[in-house]
Design a protein that fits this description.
The protein is about 55% helix and about 10% strand. With about 300 residues, the protein is α/β, with parallel strands linked by helices. It has 14 helices and 6 strands. It has 2 domains: about 220 residues, 3-Layer(aba) Sandwich (Rossmann fold); about 60 residues, Histone, subunit A (Orthogonal Bundle). It is globular, with a radius of gyration of 20 Å. Helix 5 packs across helix 6, helix 10 crosses helix 13 and helix 12 runs antiparallel to helix 13.
């Protein structure tokens, strides 16, 4: 039996330098990188998801990046299965799995367990879509309130994706999401040795300014054109265009926001996302926390592998 290498996780809020650290670490140890990002999974969504440059990906391949059609939904449960399979394959090569990203629910599902929610059902989803076309989204939210009031209270009445998913779960299983979550599946990675490193901002004002600068860089790199392409090729309702950044550009293209308002809204939304990520981060078992741009991170991580 193989003496399995520790799984290494590097997580933190958006724009904290996680990917750069993972790549630097990958240069030092035999390893493969697994992306833990719910937006970078999508093909064609390159600028808004802040994917690494292609020359970096060619040299340091990332798993679970750029492989899902933009119009398709990818569940936490699917991520968990895919990631566990990849970790097993990387183990067989006697390498380290380096998991890096900011989708904390993905990390949580791997290391803390996850409710066994049913997979998407095309027939039931078609029925729900038909109800929305005939009666509107508020009708669906009212339906959810009748069948699963706890979820309805937590989900905003305009959050189309989550409303439909909660209804779908109830229609498939006859149980609410909370009822299913109380029966979390066994976590097969629980007994594996793992090292988890968090990167957190030490200056909130400077961090918020860095988020604004990054979004402006995305605009300069062609984010508006990329968003227009995705709308024309698919629809403004596709999952990837609900992500922070893309959502504000869609509103700008719909003339709901000026360019300056779009930048401010995206910056604020990214900052709120970062705060939620840090809240999730505190629920995860962390080996050590680093501040953004701390100089000795690689040395510290390598010391745990000696």
């Amino acid at each position: 039996m193989l003496n399995l290498n520790p799984i290494i996780s590097i997580y933190g809020p958006t724009n904290s330098g996680k990917t750069s650290l993972a790549i630097e670490l990958s240069k030092k140890i035999p390893s493969e990188i697994i992306s833990v990002d719910s937006v970078q999974i999508y093909k064609e969504a390159n600028i808004g998801s802040n994917k690494p440059e292609q020359n970096i990906l060619n040299k340091y391949p990332h798993h679970l990046i750029d492989f899902i059609d933009p119009k398709n939904f990818y569940s936490v449960g699917k991520f968990k299965k895919d990631a566990i399979n990849l970790i097993s394959e990387i183990d067989q090569k006697d390498k380290h799995s380096i998991l890096t990203g900011g989708t904390m629910m993905y990390f949580y599902s791997l290391f803390n367990g996850l409710a066994d929610l049913p997979e998407k059902n095309a027939q039931i989803r078609k029925k729900i879509d038909g109800q929305e076309r005939r009666h509107g989204l508020k009708f669906l939210h009212d339906q959810l309130n009748e069948s699963d009031p706890q979820s309805a209270e937590k989900i905003h009445e305009n959050d189309r994706q989550r409303i439909k998913r909660a209804l779908e779960v109830f229609m498939i299983s006859g149980k609410t999401i909370n009822q299913l979550k109380n029966k979390e599946s066994e976590n097969i990675l629980k007994k594996r040795k793992s090292l988890s490193f968090a990167i957190i901002p030490d200056d909130r004002n400077h961090f918020k300014e860095s988020l604004k600068s990054r979004f402006k860089e995305m605009i300069a790199a062609g984010l508006i054109d990329e968003t227009e392409m995705l709308i024309k090729k698919y629809s403004k309702k596709i999952p990837v265009l609900q992500a922070v950044g893309y959502k504000q550009v869609v509103d700008f293209l719909d003339n709901k926001l000026t360019k300056e308002e779009m930048i401010e809204k995206a910056t604020n939304a990214n900052y709120q996302l970062a705060k939620r990520q840090i809240t999730w981060l505190n629920k995860l078992k962390t080996t050590e926390k680093f501040f953004v741009k701390q100089s000795n991170m690689i040395i510290k991580i390598l010391s745990y592998l000696e």
